[in-house]
Amino acid sequence: MDYKLTYDQYQQGLQKGKLLGLKCNGCDAVTFPPKSLCRECNGSDLSITEIKGFGTLRTFTVVRVPPEGFTPPYVVAMAEIDEGAWVMGNLVDINPDDADMSLIGKKVRLGSQIVKGDTYSGGDSRVVTFSLAAN
Amino acid sequence: MAEGIRDKVAIIGMGCTRFGERWDAGSEELMVEAATEAIKDAGIEKKDIQAAWFGSCFDEVNVGKSAIPLSFALKLPFLPVTRVENFCATGTEALRGAVYAVASGAYDICLALGSEKLKDTGYGGLPDFSVSLGTKNRLIFPNITAPGAFAMMATRYFAKYGLSPEEGKEVLAMISAKSHKNGAKNPKAHLRKEVTVEQILKAPMIAWPLGLFDCCGVSDGAAAAIVCRADMAKNFRSDPVFVKSMQIAISSGEEIMYNTWDGTYVESAKHCADRAYEEAGIKNPREEISMMEVHDCFSITELVTYEDLGISPRGKAANDVRDGFFNIDGTIPCQADGGLKCFGHPIGASGLRMMYEVYKQLQGNAGDRQIKDPNIGLTHNMGGFPPMNIISISIVGN
User: Fold this and answer.
1) Into how many domains does chain B fold?
2) Could you tell me if B151 and B287 lie in one domain?
3) What's the pLDDT at A120?
4) B5, B22, B46, B179 — which has fewest CB within 10 A?
5) Which of A39, A64, A121 sits opposite B257 (nearest CB)?
C-alpha cells in the first residue's frame, strides 16, 4: 500500500491554507483527512485533491467540562463537506452560549488552527475548524 | 471450517469487587479481592489455573504495563499470563482470550481478570487520551471529550428523529433514572442512590445536551472469571453458565470519513451483533434475550445501542424506554446491576463486571435484583467514539 498523501504533506497544506485530501480514481469519492485507502471503496488508486472548503453542519456539542489544558466553553461540531466526507472540528467565531439546534444544516467554511504539541506528539500541529458561512 | 465457540466453554466462577473510590485498596488488592471470590466460587484452587488473561487500559495509573501486575499480585507460579487492552472492551477482551484458549484445547481451566485504579489521579474524567490516540487525535478528534463525542450523537439523533431537546433529554433521563433505581439496591455499585428524572434534567451541563447524570462515573474496581471446558463444567457446579458467542468488531473510521454514516447509530455494533447472534444461534433478539448489560458510558449510548442490537426498531427506542421495556420488571431488563451509570467505569474491569451480573442472574443469585427466570444474557462494550470504535458483544446462557 502506497501512502499518497502523508500526514506531513497534509499539515504543510493546512499551513498554506490548503485543505488536501484524496480523490479515488475508481469511485470518485473524496477521503479527507488523507488515509492510505479510499474510505468508500477501499481503492488504492488515489490522487491528491484540494477540498473546496465548504460543508454543512450536521451535529455539535458545547463542551463545558474540557480535557486538562483547555478552557471551556467551546463548540465541537461535525460537518459533511461538499465532497462527502464527515469532518470533526471546532466551530469558531460563535459565542458557545448561542449554540442551539438551529445550527444544524447551516453552511460552514473550513479553516484550521494550531493545537499545541505535548510530550508524546511531534510538536504543534494544525486541526480543522469551521466558521459559519453565508448561506 | 471455522465453527465458532458456542457451547465449548463454561464460566464456573466469578468475582467482583465493590466498585467506587477505593482509597482503601491499591490495584493489587483489588485484583486479589476479585480473584479470591472467583476461585472460591468455582470451587477450585489457585494451582488449578493453567493460564491467565489480564485486562487493564490506563496502565500508567497504578497498574503498570505487561502481564506482570497480575502474576505479581496473585503470585501465579510462572504461568502463561497475557495482558490485553482494547479501550472500553478491555475486560471483555481478557475474558475472550481465556475463553478462546480453552476452546482451542490448549488449556482446561483459565482465569480472566480485569482491573483499573483511576481515582487516585484526582482527575474527574478519564486520563488524557492524547497519548493513546496517536496522530488520529490531530487528524480527527481535536479537543473533543468523551462526553462531547457522544453528545454530538445525541444532537444528531434528536435532529433526525424530530425530538425537541426537551423531549430527547427527558428520554435520556429516564434511562439514567432506571439504572440508578437498580444500582441503589446493589452493594457492589459505586453510586447507590435513586435519582429522579427531574433531578437529572436540572443537573449541570457537561457537554450539551448531556448533563452530569447522562455520564457514567469514574471508579476503581476489578472483576474476574474462571472458565473451563464445557464438558468439565458440571464437575465443579450444577449451574455453570455456557458461552454462546463472543464477538468484537473494530471500526476502520470509514464512518466519519465518508458520508454513509449519519451520526445516529454505531455502525460496528450492527456488524458485531449480527455475528454474535449468528454464532449464538439467535434469530430474534427481542424475543430470545432475557437480559442485557450494555455500555452506558452515556445515556445516549444506551439509547442507540437498543437499536444497534436489533432490540428496538430504528428511531423507536424512545418508545421502549417510555414503556419500561428495559426496566428491571420489563421485558428485557437492561443494567439490572446499575450499569456503568452506577458502577462507574474502571475500564479493564467493566466487561467482566457486566458478565458477573449476567452470571449471577442466570444462576438465580442476584438477591433483590433478581430477574424472573432469565436464560440468555448479553453484554456489550463500546470503546472509542461513535464514528471510530471497538464493539464487543458476549452472549451466555444456561
Assistant:
1) 2
2) yes
3) 66
4) B46
5) A39
**Residue A32 contacts B, CB cutoff 8 Å:** yes
Query: B229 and B307 share a domain?
Result: no
CA distance A5 to chain B (A): 13
Q: Say what the pLDDT of residue B281 is.
A: 97
Assess whether B61 and B197 both reside in one domain: no
User: What 3 state SS string does chain B have?
Assistant: CCCCCCCCEEEEEEEECCCECCCCCCHHHHHHHHHHHHHHHHCCCHHHCCEEEEECCCCCCCCCCCCHHHHHHHCCCCCCEEEECECECHHHHHHHHHHHHHHCCCCCEEEEEEEEECHHHCCCCCCCCHHHHCCHHHHCCCCCCHHHHHHHHHHHHHHHHCCCHHHHHHHHHHHHHHHHHHHCCCCCCCCCCCCCHHHHHHCCEEEECEEHHHECCCCEEEEEEEEEEHHHHHHHCCCCEEEEEEEEEECCCHHHHCCCCCCCCCHHHHHHHHHHHHHHCCCCHHHHCCEEECCCCEHHHHHHHHHHCCCCCCCCHHHHHHHCCCCCCCCCCECCCCHHHHHCCCHHHHHHHHHHHHHHHHCCCCHHHCCCCCCEEEEEEEEEECCEEEEEEEEEEC
Q: Residue B159's pLDDT band (boundaries 50, 70, 90)?
A: very high
- Cβ-Cβ contacts under 8 Å, A121 against chain B: 130, 135, 137-138
Cβ–Cβ of A64/B138 closer than 8 Å? no
Q: Say what the pLDDT of residue B127 is.
A: 61
Catalytic-role residue among B16, B57, B88, B110: B88
- Give this prediction's pTM: 0.95
Residue at B131 is within a domain: no
Reported ipTM: 0.92
- Per residue in B246-273, pLDDT (tens digit) is 999 999 888 887 777 899 999 999 999 9
pLDDT digits (tens, 9 = 90+) for A25-72: 999 999 998 888 998 899 999 999 999 999 999 999 999 998 777 889
Last residue of a domain, one of B204, B236, B268: B236
**A40·B135 Cβ contact <8 A:** no
Question: Which pLDDT band holds residue B1 (cuts at 50, 70, 90)?
Answer: confident
Distance from CA of A50 to the nearest CA of B (A): 16
Residues B186 and B297 in one domain: yes
Q: Is A80 on the interface with B (CB under 8 A)?
A: yes
Residues B162 and B224 in one domain: no
> In the predicted model, what is the mean pLDDT of residues B194-213?
98
Residue A1's pLDDT band (cuts 50, 70, 90): low
- Residue B55, domain CATH: 3.40.47.10
> Do B313 and B199 reside in the same domain of the chain?
yes
Residues B229 and B267 in one domain: no
For residue B231, give its domain range.
9-124+220-236
Residue B343 inside a domain? The answer is yes
Split at pLDDT 50, 70, 90, the class of A81 is very high
Specify whether B301 is located in the same domain as B172: yes
The reply to whether residue A84 touches residue B258, judged by beta carbons under 8 angstroms, is yes
Which domains does chain A show, CATH number per domain?
A: 7-51 (no CATH), 54-132 (2.40.50)
